[in-house]
Amino acid sequence: MRTIPRALLIAVLAPTAIAATNLQVETHRISQDRYDLTVRLPAGIDAIRVQSMLRPVADQACEGRTWQWGPHRFESTTRLGPEEPQAGEQTFTQQVDCGAAATPDPTAVAAPNAPATADDERRVRETTLAYLLAKDTGDFAKARSMQTEEAKLSMPPDWSESRAAFNQQAGQPAERQVVRLTWYDNPQGAPRKGRYVAADYRGDYRHAGFYCGYAMWYREADGSYRLVREEEGQVSNETASKIAAADLHAFRKPLGCRD
């Protein structure tokens, strides 16, 4: 009878945002060939990078058998207030199915041989800003039309209602920016092969409130991009107004803001 430790301690090279570290990965057996891998990390690390970090744990849990990723979920927490800002943390839980051969996704589009061009960057920036505009103006039908089915399933049930409530309180941002693009070709652990790009963004209001996050896009066969993942943090004017202006920047980092 196989025994799997409840928690595996592994050393991994984390993304450049954090140094190499020992990560406590909890391995929970769900059924004969299914496990949940749970890890706690600083906020703002996207799913593709976390899955890459978890591959050695999946290999160990499945004892050398083939396996594939199942669904995953994020839970993020950040404590804000007049005291010293606390680093944001996210709990990432990834299901892994052992003995399951990966099924080729018929919608997968091979990543281009050439690196991303200036036109690719322009298209991603424009698509990201159009997506933010749709959310900011409450056009959630348009926003959803830009999402893949995977993205729609990963959204909280009250996603549009929660964003609409924030919009009502915040109004329209004075400025929206895409602050950085990070490209991934055929990343390990991704749901399908192809070219992905993470667009870090921010929205700033004339009052003290703001939002920031990243949108993960997938390049389709026609060169367009559709959303596969999004993480966003929001700070209302009510909360931000309680923070000294000189301290606001320090509160952005725990939310995953990349200014």
In short:
The chain has 259 residues and is an alpha+beta fold. It has helices at residues 47-61, 118-136, 140-145, 149-154, 159-170, 237-240, 248-252; strands at residues 7-12, 21-31, 34-42, 67-77, 89-98, 175-185, 195-204, 210-219, 225-235.
**Structural class designation:** alpha+beta
Look at the structure and give the mean pLDDT.
81
In whole angstroms, the N-to-C terminal distance is 51 Å
What order do the strands of the largest sheet run in, or round the barrel if closed? 1-2-3-5-4
User: Stretches where pLDDT falls below 50 for ≥5 residues?
Assistant: 1-21
Task: Give the CATH class of the largest domain.
Answer: Alpha Beta
Number of domains: 2
Shape: globular
Features:
259 residues, Nuclear Transport Factor 2, Chain: A, alpha+beta, disordered N terminus, globular
Structure, explained:
The chain has 2 domains: 7-98, no CATH class; 118-255, Roll (Nuclear Transport Factor 2, Chain: A), CATH 3.10.450. It is of the alpha+beta class and 259 residues long. The radius of gyration is 19 Å and the shape is globular. The termini are far apart. The longest helix is centred in the middle third of the chain and has 19 residues, at 118-136. Mean pLDDT is 81; it is low at 1-21. The protein has a 5-stranded antiparallel sheet with strand order 1-2-3-5-4, covered by helices on one side. It has a 4-stranded antiparallel sheet with strand order 6-7-8-9. The protein has helices at residues 47-61, 118-136, 140-145, 149-154, 159-170, 237-240, 248-252; strands at 7-12, 21-31, 34-42, 67-77, 89-98, 175-185, 195-204, 210-219, 225-235. 26% of the residues lie in helices and 34% in strands.
